[in-house]
Each structure stands twice: as C-alpha cells, then as structure tokens.
Amino acid sequence: MSDPGKADDLLAQIPEGGRKGPPPVHLWNPPFCGDIDMRIARDGSWFYMGTPIGRKALVRLFSGILRRDGDQYFLVTPVEKVGIRVDDAPFVAVSLQVEGRGEAQVLRFVTQVGDEVEAGAEHPLRVALDPDTQEPAPYLHVRANLEALVHRNVFYQLVELAEPRRIDGRDWLGVWSHGTFFPLGPQD
C-alpha cells in the first residue's frame, strides 16, 4: 500500500481533542490494512516513500499513533492499522537534563519528537552490546513497548555521571534516576 494519499487518510482518522500526550493507541484494535512505505531510520529520521518527512509537526503527529506489537511497528487509528519499518528504535533521546545527585538524582530525557521522559522504574534505561563489536547501545523505555536509542552525545553525559556499585558480586558503573540504579557497563 504505497498510495501517496494513504498518509493523509491516516491523519484524517486521528481524533482531535485537548488531551495531553499521545492517543490511547493501545486500546484501539482496528483491522490491519497492510504496510505503507514509511520508515524510521536509526537516527530518528522519518521517511515516506523514500523521501524525508521534513515537517516536524507531522512527524510528531505520526509518532503519537505509533505502536509496537512484538517485533512489528504500526501506525494505529481507531479504524485502521498499517505497518511501517523501524531500523532500530523509533525514537532517539537527543538531550538530557539532570537534577540532584546520587539516589535522589533525576534524569530527564527529550526525544527527537519532543517527548520528555524521566528515567526510573517505569522508564528504565538498558544497555545492549553489539555481539560483533561489543559497542554499547543504550535505550530508554518511552511508552508502551516503545524505546528511544540514547544518542551518543547523551550517552557520554551519562558516562560522566556514572558511579560505581557492586551488584551480584560484580562492580558496575551506572547512573541513578528516581531511586533506581541503571548499570551502564562493568567497571573493569
């Protein structure tokens, strides 16, 4: 379904309202209508039919109706669900604000689409290692099965904040946020 009007059709189906935050796509169960030629690149850029979507407001709107079921990503409205491709994570955490220190520290991230997320028990940080290069790839849970890849510059900020902690007999470097310790990597 690579119909150029398909994106406009999806937009017309999104309910309007004064609600803050994304619509409750997790509650909607419309029929699957096929895949559209939309892709989110690893750097957080959105493409439609191979062309970058340059309007930030449009990307923000689409990001609000994004849902992940298993390993597949969909744009969901109350009446339609279409598949899209995501190269890695749909969001990228592009900035970090830090308040406090130690266990009282709060880490507030902002994604490329303007979502603000405070790391904590409900929004954990995790670090995956590339099996070939052993390069770390940090991720932040944003909402309902959706994550943000933490931008390299932001990850460097986290490393600067890291402090040691012994977990299960092993020394780790990690960061605190909302009273939760998130290991970034082994201290050695």
UniProtKB/TrEMBL annotation:
Residues 1-25 are annotated as: Disordered. The lineage of its organism: Bacteria, Pseudomonadati, Pseudomonadota, Gammaproteobacteria, Pseudomonadales. This is Proteophosphoglycan. Transmembrane segments: none annotated. It comes from Azotobacter chroococcum NCIMB 8003. Residues 23-89, 90-184 form the DUF1285 domain.
